[in-house]
Amino acid sequence: QVKLEKVLGITAPGNRALACDPQTGLLAYPAGWCVVVLLNPQKNKQQHIFNSSRKAITTLAFSPDGKYVVTGESGHLPAVRVWEVSERVQVGELLEHKYGVACVAFSPNGKLIVSVGYQHDMMVNVWNWKKNVLVAANKVSSKVSAVSFSDDSYFVTAGNRHVKFWYLGSRPDLQVNSTVPLLGRSGLLGELRNNFFSDVACGRGKQASSTFCITSSGLLCVFNERRLLDKWVELRVSQATCLSLTEDLIFCGCSDGTVRAFSAVDLHFRCTLPRPHSLGTDVGLVDASQLFSSKPGSRFPDTVALTYDPASGWLSCIYSDHSVYVWDVGAHGRLRRGGKLFSALYHASCVWSVEVYPEGGGGASRGAGPGSFFTCSSDSTIRLWNVGNHNTVNRNVLSHVGTALVGHSRAGPSDPRPGRGPG
User: Fold this and answer.
1) Which domain of life does the protein's organism represent (predicted)?
2) pTM check: above 0.85
């Protein structure tokens, strides 16, 4: 029987497709069309969830207790599916969207799921997923890029010229007989009304009354409990894409490999975190002292998704060249620039060919021991992989799953768009 052992790649389109289990630190992200990878970054161990519908997974999220993962998919009549993490089996299927699911989220008590459809789908749905009941719904005309549940029974959507607060009635988890209309109230955007809000996160703990957003033009904004745009700061980047927060900290992922940290209390700047390898350099270099030294004018892959685990202090980042880094940046509000805990460099584009290294080929001296194989890609690289537990020489210190790379790391399809520069 053939069994999937490891997936060498990632297809997360943004922050809506990267999640961290708040209980264990397990990472979840889609790979290929119908696989969810569950990664333990400390042990470099994978488990996999298979979507038997063969539809592409576009978004996912963990339940607060870490026992379940909810996924959304694209294609005709897409489903919102709920999976049990321990057994990796489907335990729920919610059918109401028509074209695709843009983002999903669990409520803080884990009883409800909100799913937002693609722009042409135009639906925001709230489900009692264990009873397979749609308890509330409404239409949304804007393109929505993100959703976040607050600790106080409302959730917020963000997108193109759109920040909207949605309020649920009393005990919606008990609603079983009919679907009630969702009550939505737009955020008061003021002079920022023409921006694209690329991500949103509701405050936690003492900041529970605040809602944080970032704009693609490079602004970090906070809305107060009256939905008023209270303040904002410039990130001084050409583009901002994603954010993750705790009660104390806000991490903002931006273009050119930049991640900036701010205080969640007053938006004061804390620090800029390390960047990954620069584009156009030979990432197959063995000398660790050269890893993060860059020449003037170097470009870096964009940060397209990030998630922070406050228990371990690990910040996981996905970049536009399909590389994955996990940084140890400190826990319990004690922020440090940190070091690299885990990294993997995957192909940034289509893989055209795979060749297994022949047994007895004498490749151990070249870093190609048993279990090694080559891949070539339209990203203009040839890569040598070894997925066994063999000790090979010349192992790539930038990637825990590859051994060597011929060519140069290149950006993926999401190069920075023009926007606000340093101010």
Assistant:
1) Eukaryota
2) yes
